Amino acid sequence: MHLDQHYVDPRVAAIYDTANAARQDFDFYLALARELNARHIIDLACGTGALAVELAAQGATVTGVDPAPAMLDVARRRPGADQVRWLDGDSSALPAATADLVVMTGHAAQVFLTDEQWRTVLADCARALRPGGVLAFETRNPSARGWRAWNRTDSHRAHDGPEAFETWVEITDVRPDFVSFTGHTVFTADGRVVLSPSTLRFRTSAQVRTSLADAGFAVRQVFGDWTREAVTDTAPELIFVAERT
């Protein structure tokens, strides 16, 4: 699987948490873990490990899995990291039939561009879950067309701190089901520019439901935002909670 530059560059990985500080999704997934009384949780595409550590702090046994060594280096250095088992790899690295809950956050579901890639990930998640276990993830709602704000004017952010930097994204192509863009990171201290071209897959709710059913999951809930509102055409998210049957 191709990894975008902002996941593999150590300097960019080190500022990932600062650049993505507003994470409403964490509260949702932490609450879901409590509601399910999930004792063994897998955080697939765990990135810098912020959510994995918080899940472990709630008392769960947590495994964090990510294919980007630079991100895992950050994860392993954060406070509480010793309470999480970290695995360098993709979904094929998931242990079999051990998890009560698998979460896939940060819109990671959208990086799997082909149907074959997506089927493989869902099959690996099903294999990792005990019967009755739950898979939870989100994907951006294509009907909301959120990519219209992916331009320098609307997406530009300046970040202060020990490593000051600026970020923004710019669309490069929009096709049915796919949006391509370039992420820009500019470090203030030396002016270094890191460009990260990327393409995401925008699946409809119906497409996701079908793929989950084919992989042996029953969809239990779908939400349109992190406050658990219903899905509408303008809702920003499609947040799926599905049970392994």
UniProtKB/TrEMBL annotation:
Entry-linked PANTHER family: TRANS-ACONITATE 2-METHYLTRANSFERASE, TRANS-ACONITATE 2-METHYLTRANSFERASE-RELATED
Q: Which organism is it from?
A: Nakamurella panacisegetis
Q: Which GO terms fall under biological process for this protein?
A: methylation
> Ribonucleoprotein: present as a keyword of the record?
no
Query: What GO MF annotations does this protein's record show?
Result: methyltransferase activity
Key words, A-Z: Methyltransferase, Transferase, Ubiquinone
Boundaries of every Methyltransferase domain copy: 41-133
Q: What is this protein called?
A: Ubiquinone/menaquinone biosynthesis C-methylase UbiE
